[in-house]
Amino acid sequence: MVSKSRMVMKQCQKIACLVIVLLAEGTFVHAKKKIDEPVFTLANPGVQTTIDYEKFGVFENTGTPHYVYKISDRKGLSEAAGEGVYPNTSSLLNDPQYKKALSAGELNGRSWDHVDTPDIQNNFYMWATAKEDGGTKQYYSALMLKRAGLTLQAVKAFYAEVIHFPKTINMTFWKSPWYPAVTAIDQIQFLLRTHPELGLDLKDAMIRIENKYEDNIGEKIFYINPGRFVRRAHKESEFRRFDLTTHPIQRQIGQGKVVLRQYDNGHWGLFVDSAPYVVRGMVYQPTAVGRTPDDGVYRPFRDWMFSDLNKNEKPDGPYDAWVDQNKNDVQDSDEKSVGDFQLLKEMGVNTIRLYHHGFSKALLHDLYESYGIRVMMGDCAGAYAIGSGASWDIGTDYSDPKQQESMLASIRQMIEEYKDEPYILFWVLGNENNFGVANNSRKAPDAYYKFINQAAQLIKSLDSNHPVAICNGDLGFLSKIKRDCPDIDILGVNAYRGDHGFGDSFWRDVSEILDKPVVLTEFGSPAYSKYVSLDKAEDLQANYLKGNWQDIEWNLGGGPGIGNALGGFVFEWIDEWWKAGSPPVADPSVHDTTGQFGGPFPDGWSHEEWFGITSQGNGKHSPFERQLRKAYFLFKNELWDKKKMAARKLPADPPIAQ
Known about the structure:
By secondary structure, this protein is an alpha/beta fold. It is about 30% helix and about 15% strand.
C-alpha cells in the first residue's frame, strides 16, 4: 500500500499501460537506415515477405462488424507465413535452435515470464508456442520478432494479428481494455515509417471500435478493415511539412494572446502573439533527496521555489544547480553553478508544467523574461482529494455540491491570481483524475466530466486570453469527454505506450471522436532496467523518448500525420527519491529500484524514482548536483536544436514580451 500523503502528491501514477515493452528501434523517417542486424535468424521465415492473403483464402464483410477471413489453403498460407506467423505452428518445432533451447531446459516456466527478459530469442520461442489465446500469442510473437530486429517477419506477424484476431481484448494494469490488433497496426506503421528502405505502406487498415474507451468489455462493436500493403518509392517516405498558415482558417478558439486555430484540412495550430507555438515542455518538480510529503510538511508542488540551503537568497535548484560532468559526485573546480533554468533553456524547453499552490511570481517572471520559458498552469480539480476538502480515505465526490464549491474556489483563485501574468500559456484541469485515485471519477465519470466542464466555463468567464485543457489518463472515457466537456479547448493526455510513440490510432481517435487538439501532458520512461547497466538504461530511456517526440512531431499541424498535436511535456526533469514503496519500506534518502507497476518500459516496470532526464548523483549534494543523462543531450543537440528544427520547418518561438 502507498501511504495517504504519498499518494496525494504522487503525480506520476501512470496511465493505463499495456503490459508490454517496446524496446528502442528506429530513427526519424527521413533518415536512410538499413535494417539492423538481427539478434537471431529463423530457420523458416516463410516464402513470402508480405503475404498475398487473397491467394490463400477469402475476405468477407470487410469494414463491418461481421468481418471474417476464411482460409481455403492452410498449408500454402503456413508456408508463406513462416515461423511465428499464424497459422504456421509446425515450422518452429523443427527449428534446430528451438530444439536446442528446449532440450537445454531454457523454455521452462510461463510465457508471461518471458516478456521483458533480455533473452529475446527464447522469449520468441516461448510465445510462438504459448498456450495462450490466439490473439495474445500472435501479438507477443510479433513483438519479439520486432525486438530481435527481424523487421519483415515482425511486419508479417503483426499483420497476422490484424487478419486473424482483430477482436482480441486484453486488460491493462489499470483494468482498462487494450486491443492488440489496433496496436499491431500502429506497430506496422511505426516499422514501415522508420524503415523506409522496405518500400512498403499499409493502406486503409482500420479497426474502429464502438465504446472503445469504456471499461465494459461486453459493449464493444468492431468494424474491421485489414487494409493492404502497397509498394512505394523510398523518397515517398521522407518527412515533409507544409506551411499550415497558407490554408483557410476553419475556426478559431480565443481572441487574445494565446489562440487555437483549426484549418480547412482539419489540422490544428497553437499561436502565441500571432506566432505559431509548439510546446516543448518539461514537468519540473525538483524534490530534494530526503524530502517527502509523507512527513506532512514538505510540499513538492511549491517548496522548491523557496529552498535556499546555501543562504544566497536564491532558490537552490533553479539558480545554483551544477552539472557533475565526470559523474564523480564531487563539484570540481570547473563545475560552476549554472542552475536548472539555464539548463532547461539550453535543452530547448519553452514551457514547464506547474500546479498552482502559493508560487513565487518573481521567480516565474524571471523564468519567462530571462530564459524564455512559459508555464502551463494547473489545478488538481480534486485529484488525490486535493482542493475538494474530502478526506483521502473517502476521496473527492464530484457530485457533492460542497466539494464542487471548494474546488471551484481553488480554480477561481488560480485564474484571478495568474491570468494577467505574461508567462501563462494555458490552463490545465486535473492530473489523470479518471484513474480514480482518491476520487470517484472512475465510478461516476458523468459527474466528474460535467464538473470539469463547469470549471472550464468558470475559467472562460474570468479569462478569455488563454485556452483551457483537461489532463486525462490516456484516452479513458473519451466519448464522455466529447459529450460532457464541450468547453474544454485542449485534450491533455498522460500517455506511456512504448518507444513507438502513441500510435496512429491515438491521434486518429481523438480527431474523429473529439476533434480537439492534443498536448501530451506527460510522456517518459525510467532510466533504470534490472536487466542492463545504468549506462545502457540511459540509452533505452533516450530512444524511448525519441520515438515519443517523433510521433508528436509527425502529428503536428502541417506535418504528414493527423495534424492535431500541439507538443508535449517530458516526464520529468529530475529523479524524485520519495516515490517508491511506502513506510517503513520507503526511504526518501535511498534511490529505490522497486518497480511500482507493469507497463511498456525497458524492463516492463515503472520505476517511479528514475524518470528524470537528469539525476541527483549519489544524493549527497542534493538539491544542487545534476548528472545529465543521454536523453538531455538528445533533446538539446537533435530533437529541440533550433537549427535542426528549422531544417524540419518547425516554427521558432515567438519573442518574449517586455
